[in-house]
Amino acid sequence: MARRCSTWMVVVMAAAGLATAHAKVQISERPFGQMPDGGVVTAFTLTNANGVKATLIELGATLVSLEVPDRDGNMADVVLGWDTVEDYLNHGSFFGCIAGRYANRIAKGKFTLDGTEYTLATNNEPNHLHGGNVGFDKVVWKGVPFATEEGPSIRFTYLSKDGEEGYPGNLACAVTYTLTNQDELKIAYEAETDKATPVNLTHHSYFNLAGHD
Asked: What is the model's pTM?
């Protein structure tokens, strides 16, 4: 039987009334770059009614930029990110990604579940970190944008197959970002598996509320 888990995270980025002049809610998309196998990574930009913008890419279901107003209405990007697919693949910073299957460390890269011991990559010696050598930050998710009453949203989905990075069970994941018209970025996580498996998803942005510049 499938097992499900879900959780919510809300990041409030600006108080009501501080945003710049209202703009029409928009969702746009463009090519961001290519994977080594030639697959195209798409970038999606969500713009809420106040002109706040969040740009996300399919690689790692990653938040690339988040443009919000300061107290004087001046816009700034308050998250750290890279400019190219190659940068995201070649750096271990986990900027803005979804970390998984298991965010944080698993001691010595081993765990026992239902009497079976599993061995994982020790990519953070001597421990396993953020899903292994090719964690959820290094795979391409499928992004589907849509509109909600709260504001523009995008849902990313990814199927981690049984045995991927040493983990048991097929794990179907979904992460939904919603940029509300109250200038909040909401993140909802869902996971469904056909076998008992460790799951610990998180969002891994680095914030600088003064603007990354």
From this structure: 0.89
